[in-house]
Design goal:
The basal body constitutes a major portion of the flagellar organelle and consists of a number of rings mounted on a central rod. It comes from endosymbiont of Tevnia jerichonana. InterPro entries: Flag_bb_rod_N, Flagellar_basal_body_rod_CS, FlgB. Belongs to the flagella basal body rod proteins family. There is one protein chain. The protein is mainly alpha-helical. The chain has one domain. It is built from 4 helices and 2 strands; from the N terminus they run H-H-E-H-E-H. The chain has a two-stranded antiparallel ribbon with strand order 1-2. The longest helix has 34 residues. It is flat and about 65 Å long. The chain starts with a helix and ends with a helix.
Length: 129
């Protein structure tokens, strides 16, 4: 039995949702910072790319460009475009960020519950219950 098949996309989804929560929390923490640009990423696009085989560059010299590191590559990070920009250049819209954070948290909990149920089922199968 392959655990990757049993758990599906949920382990990757949890990692991406956790990273997205960090980003949104950072946006909210900087809501009053002049010039701060709110950041986010397209969750579905990044998850879809994580499901496929990633293309990794191999460097042969120390001065070559290094491959992207982290859960979400920097090239996938986007800046939010505010519906009503502030005069100080800050693009954080607190209500939008709070709504996005709540939605992301619910989806994180859904994946976590799915994994918990799957693990409980596997545990019962191993015990022979």
């Amino acid at each position: 039995m392959n655990l990757d098949d049993a758990f599906g996309i949920h382990p990757q989804a949890l990692l991406l949702r956790a990273r997205r929560s960090e980003l949104i929390a950072s946006n909210l923490a900087n809501a009053d910072t002049p010039g701060y640009k709110a950041r986010d990423f397209d969750f579905h696009k990044v998850l879809q790319q994580a499901q496929g085989e990633p293309v990794r560059l191999r460097t042969t010299h120390p001065s070559h460009i290094q491959d992207e590191q982290g859960v979400v590559p920097p090239t996938q990070m986007l800046y939010r475009i505010p519906s009503q920009p502030s005069l100080d250049g800050n693009t954080v819209e607190t209500e939008r960020e709070q709504s996005t954070f709540a939605s992301n948290s619910l989806e994180y909990q859904a994946s976590l519950r799915f994994l918990n149920g799957k693990i409980s089922s596997l545990r019962q199968a191993i015990k022979g219950e």
